[in-house]
């Protein structure tokens, strides 16, 4: 059995398999058997939840329950999945994973990835749902502790109030099911300076200098051109994180990790927003000419002490 324990530094697949740990010939007494109903989710001094339980009980089977459902779209087989996860040992309370005080993890909603039980549970909920999951030790590693996990299902595209960018900007349309954007680039020469427009106004944390972001993005060429990598025509895709096989992109604002146009253009935006950026070569890639970016800000984490 593979378990739902995606440790931050060990890229273990998110999975709950279809088997449980073997038991000894002496059956445990009822008083030592733990149940998911005995676990209470609480708050903490950080963004993460807390778990209250009686330590040291034996958990012999996988369990999950819906804490609350969300108000977003229903989840579908094969779709990208963005999760915040807090997990702790049910033996001593040691925190095993905490993405709430950091960035969420991305997966694909498939039984071979998340396991049959969690897969079926997720297919019955909407984006915004919270689940509580208990996993016993695996057959391959019975020395591991049983674990409890709080799992929040996050949007994998921008969610908020739509705003009209105006006629001077490229026209952006979004796929009705996935939210993936496409653009129609206007005729004429591109602007000389960086242009930024918020297309969807999210209500999450604000992007600051030093913020860590999880984003989905696509970028297109404004004009035809060529360089040592090849040639392109107006409207060709330069790059995209939207394919299911490509995980959302993680970046830190102000670290020099991304081009100047993104570093400056995403400042002061909020999680949940979709941002349109027209990035001239002087703010991006000199050999590529002007690029049009559409960025969905999926998550923003501001470490303590960030500007």
Automatic annotation (TrEMBL):
GO molecular function: peptidyl-prolyl cis-trans isomerase activity
Domain named PPIase FKBP-type: residues: 210-307
Signal peptide: 1-26
Protein keywords: Isomerase, Rotamase, Signal
Pfam families on file: FKBP_C
Catalysed reaction, written as an equation: [protein]-peptidylproline (omega=180) = [protein]-peptidylproline (omega=0)
Family annotation (InterPro entries): PPIase_dom_sf (IPR046357), PPIase_FKBP_dom (IPR001179)
EC number from the UniProt entry: 5.2.1.8
UniProt entry tagged with the keyword Isomerase: yes
Top enzyme class: isomerase
PANTHER family xref list: 39 KDA FK506-BINDING NUCLEAR PROTEIN, FKBP-TYPE PEPTIDYL-PROLYL CIS-TRANS ISOMERASE FKPA
Protein's recorded name: Peptidyl-prolyl cis-trans isomerase
């Amino acid at each position: 059995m593979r378990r739902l324990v995606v440790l931050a530094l060990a890229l273990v697949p998110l999975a709950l398999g279809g088997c449980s740990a073997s038991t000894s010939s002496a059956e445990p007494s009822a008083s030592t058997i733990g149940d998911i109903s005995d676990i209470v989710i609480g708050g903490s001094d950080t963004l993460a939840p807390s778990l209250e339980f009686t330590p040291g009980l034996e958990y012999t089977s996988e369990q999950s329950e819906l804490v609350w459902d969300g108000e977003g779209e229903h989840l579908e087989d094969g779709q990208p999945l963005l999760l915040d996860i807090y997990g702790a040992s049910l033996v001593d309370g040691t925190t095993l994973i905490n993405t709430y005080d950091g960035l969420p993890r991305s997966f694909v909603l498939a039984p071979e990835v998340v396991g049959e039980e969690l897969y079926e549970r997720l297919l019955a909920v909407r984006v915004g749902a919270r689940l509580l999951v208990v996993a016993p030790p695996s057959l391959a590693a019975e020395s591991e502790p049983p674990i409890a996990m709080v799992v929040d299902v996050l949007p994998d595209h921008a969610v908020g109030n739509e705003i009209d960018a105006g006629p001077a900007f490229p026209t952006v349309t979004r796929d009705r099911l996935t939210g993936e954007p496409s653009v129609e680039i206007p005729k004429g020469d591109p602007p000389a300076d960086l242009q930024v427009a918020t297309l969807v106004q999210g209500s999450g944390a604000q992007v600051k200098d030093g913020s860590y972001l999880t984003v989905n993005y696509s970028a297109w060429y404004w004009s035809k051109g060529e360089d040592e990598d090849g040639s392109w025509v107006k409207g060709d895709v330069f790059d995209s994180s939207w394919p299911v096989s490509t995980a959302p992109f993680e970046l830190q604002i102000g670290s020099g990790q991304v081009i100047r146009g993104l570093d400056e253009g995403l400042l002061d935006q909020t999680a949940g927003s979709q941002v349109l950026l027209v990035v001239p070569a002087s703010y991006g890639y000199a050999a590529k000419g002007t690029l049009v970016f559409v960025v969905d800000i999926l998550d923003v984490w501001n470490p303590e002490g960030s500007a």
